[in-house]
Write a structure and sequence with these properties.
- The complex is a heterodimer of chains A (94) and B (407).
- Chain A is of the alpha+beta class and 94 residues long.
- In chain A, 33% of the residues lie in helices and 20% in strands.
- With 407 residues, chain B is an alpha/beta fold.
- Chain B has one domain: TIM Barrel.
- Chain B has a 9-stranded mixed beta sheet, with helices on one face.
- The chains are: A alpha+beta (94), B alpha/beta (407).
- At the A-B interface, strand 2, strand 3, strand 4, helix 1 and helix 3 of A face loops of B.
- The complex binds iron/sulfur cluster (2 copies).
- The site of one iron/sulfur cluster (SF4) has 12 residues of chain B, from loops.
- Chain B: It catalyses: [PQQ precursor protein] + S-adenosyl-L-methionine = E-Y cross-linked-[PQQ precursor protein] + 5'-deoxyadenosine + L-methionine + H(+).
- Chain B: Catalyzes the cross-linking of a glutamate residue and a tyrosine residue in the PqqA protein as part of the biosynthesis of pyrroloquinoline quinone (PQQ).
- Chain B: Its EC number is 1.21.98.4.
Chain lengths: 94, 407
């Protein structure tokens, strides 16, 4: 894997990039990202992150929300790593 | 976390995943006459197209079975005046909707209606960037129209995806094609070498580029990639005749792709109808769910129990699943053989011969077959001339023969 590009800031308000559509697929029991003639099936944690991106919530708020929903802590690095990948793939705009 | 590696995985042979990709070939009618057209050579035999009601039902059934990408293609799908209605229903059902068009018939009014119907994406195909060559290759005056169409696509905010089929006659103009794509504001440009099925197979000698042409085109493409950076993503697809391992065709037979032809025949890929001895179901008689999971046609080449040597015992069989069934059928007469692109296939010399001939400059060719343009009249003639599919003229070697076949 390439080194993630400049990590996304905690006060950024990322959203799903245009031309990508995120939706829940009941048959696959997964969140998928759809784009011209293609699909990425997201795993559980990626789906949890992506479905919370609305362009208004900050990354910090997202992390807080995830940690409280899953009654856990220390998700910051995981979330930042994923968002860096997602940004590099063009799925997410900061 | 490892979300990036998810993509479309391989379903285990016994339990196919859902038909994620639905290709709706709405019609074989088309105003163009491409020499590499992927429609069946005998397309003119198809007389009755599915009705609007049939298509709406197909969309609903496919969506329920798990289809998520829907491509509307043809022929020229713009020739169906219910296209907007079908797109609207597909969108309502939650499909990501793609339109694959040559641009003929995509007026401003229809583009607006399609936008309103929820169309997500248009892939515009260009035959070439130079007017003369374009008109020659597609046999109609379409170039200016495509330029206009590209403008319409852009102005509606669709991503601009250009597709250009590359071959011996236009590959030397790759600069012009890329320049044009840039000028039109394309975000993606697919330079896909013609694949040798259907009309392109008849015209193969005239269309397969030489190695030198290919290498130059790839070099030029790479230079442009470097120069243009993120501005445009360029995909270059090499003809598989130049490979020594086949492609994993359709990502596996009946694994991801479901094609519905204009008359309702359901196929695991859009050329599979040529395969003799396999009966494919029709959406008029069977639900999409049953077609996908329970029809003999779709189960025929699932798994690997159908494989023969050398695939049967090959350590690479999971990687390519023996390649393309149609190519095996066209070039060896038996769809269960290894795709002869593979250099382990005893038929590989068939591919090597074609590649060797591609190195002969046009000027030094003694017999030059004229290009056959796709056309309903020609289609009917070809269909009558032989009731056997093209390519079946090659006889398979004796069952136990080890020696390569002779063309
Ligand atoms: S390849 Fe050309 S002739 Fe064939 S359907 Fe497409 S535009 Fe029409
Ligand atoms: S022998 Fe068959 S399975 Fe092995 S690499 Fe060749 S085509 Fe693939």
């Amino acid at each position: 894997m390439n080194a993630p590009q400049a990590a996304i800031a905690l006060d950024a308000r990322p959203r799903v990039a245009g031309h990508f559509r995120l939706q829940w697929e009941e048959v696959q029991k997964a969140w998928v990202l759809l784009y011209p003639e293609g699909m990425v099936k997201l795993n559980g944690s990626a789906g949890e992150i992506m479905q919370r991106l609305d362009g208004e919530k900050t990354v910090q708020a997202l992390i807080d929300e995830l940690e409280s929903s899953f009654e856990t802590s220390g998700l910051t690095q995981d979330v930042l790593d994923f968002l860096a990948i997602a940004q590099r793939q063009g799925w997410v705009k900061p | 976390m490892n979300a990036a590696s998810a993509a479309t995985g391989i379903a285990p042979a016994t339990q196919p995943g859902p038909p994620l990709w639905l290709l709706a070939e709405l019609t074989y009618r088309c105003p163009l006459h491409c020499v590499f057209c992927y429609n069946p050579v005998d397309f003119a035999r198809t007389s009755t197209e599915l009705s609007t009601g049939d298509w709406l039902r197909v969309l609903r059934e496919a969506r329920a079975a798990g289809s998520v990408q829907c491509g509307f293609s043809g022929g020229e799908p713009m020739l169906r005046d219910d296209l907007e209605e079908l797109v609207a229903e597909a969108h309502r059902l939650g499909f990501y909707t793609n339109l694959l068009t040559s641009g003929v018939g995509l007026t401003e009014a229809r583009a607006s209606a399609l936008k309103q119907a929820g169309l997500d994406h248009i892939q515009l195909s260009f035959q070439d960037s130079t007017r003369e060559l374009n008109d020659f290759l597609s046999h109609t005056k379409t170039f200016d129209l495509k330029r206009r169409t590209a403008g319409i696509i852009k102005s509606h905010g669709w991503p601009m995806v250009l597709n250009c089929v590359i071959h011996r006659l236009n590959i030397d103009y790759i600069e012009q094609i890329i320049e044009l794509a840039v000028e039109l504001g394309a975000e993606y440009l697919e330079l896909a070498n013609s694949q040798y099925y259907s009309w392109a197979e008849i015209n193969r000698d005239g269309l397969l580029p030489s190695r030198e042409q290919l290498e130059r085109a790839e070099r030029v493409t790479n230079d442009y990639r470097e120069k243009l950076g993120d501005k445009i993503r360029i995909f270059f697809v090499v003809p598989d005749y130049y490979e020594t391992r086949p492609k994993k065709c359709m990502n596996g037979w009946g694994n991801v792709f479901l094609t519905i032809t204009p008359d309702g025949t359901a196929l695991p890929c859009h050329t599979a109808k040529m395969l003799k001895g396999i009966t494919f179901p029709n959406v008029r008689d069977m639900s999409v769910q049953d077609i996908w999971y329970a029809s003999p046609g779709f189960n025929h080449f699932r798994g690997d129990s159908w494989m023969k040597d050398p695939c049967r015992n090959c350590p690479e069989k999971e990687k390519d699943l023996g390649g393309c069934r149609c190519q095996a059928f066209m070039l060896t007469g038996d769809a269960a053989n290894a795709d002869p692109v593979c250099d382990k296939s005893p038929f590989h010399p068939v591919v090597q011969d074609a590649v060797a001939y591609a190195q002969v400059p046009d000027a030094r060719r003694t017999v030059v077959k004229p290009l056959v343009f796709r056309d309903p009249k020609v289609s009917r003639q070809l269909a009558e001339a032989s009731s056997t599919p093209l390519g079946a003229h090659l006889s398979a070697p004796e069952k136990n023969s080890r020696s390569p076949p002779i063309l």
